[in-house]
Design a protein that fits this description.
Elements (H helix, E strand, L loop, with lengths): L16 E3 L12 E5 L5 E2 L15 E5 L30 E2 L4 H6 L4 E2 L3 E3 L8 H14 L4 E5 L4 H10 L7 E5 L5
Parallel strand pairs: 1-7, 8-9
Antiparallel strand pairs: 2-3, 2-4, 5-6
Length: about 180
Amino acid sequence: MKQITIKKGESKIFPFFIFYSFLCAHMSKTGVVYVCQHCGWKSLKWVGRCGGCGEWDSTIEELDTPPGSRYKSVTSNRELPQPITLIKSLECPCIETGMKEFDRILGGGLIVGSAVLIGGTPGIGKSTLLLQVCQYISQKGYTTLYVTGEESVAQTKLRAERLSILSDNLLVVAETNVI
């Protein structure tokens, strides 16, 4: 794996993406079918009572993959399991977030090119925490991209103003179509 070098002041967008737990709620539902776990009856919509056997609360959501569909198993280039002691370690550059405990949880900071899932109940402070992280990174001369799927860019700007988080290196976009 090639080591990435990021120089302070480069005009590249920092490749750090945050996906909230709402991601699943906004995903496209194409190819979804509800299958009864007792008799195998299928429905395109969730039903409380199975139309095949009459059993209550027996249907679960599954991906509909008919025979010959585009979802085929690929086994030719699959890696085989190996002992972790035989895997070569790589030195990955970490960027500190400015929050000691957050860096500790991340193993020393954000790893370049990584994706981190931040989840939690509404109102717990996920957006505030991540805006503060983006501010710290943008103050170090990096360009950061804050992608929100629950708020408009105007709402994000209001939060940033309340926290005194304003920087030309902090880019904001609202996007709900993640597929």
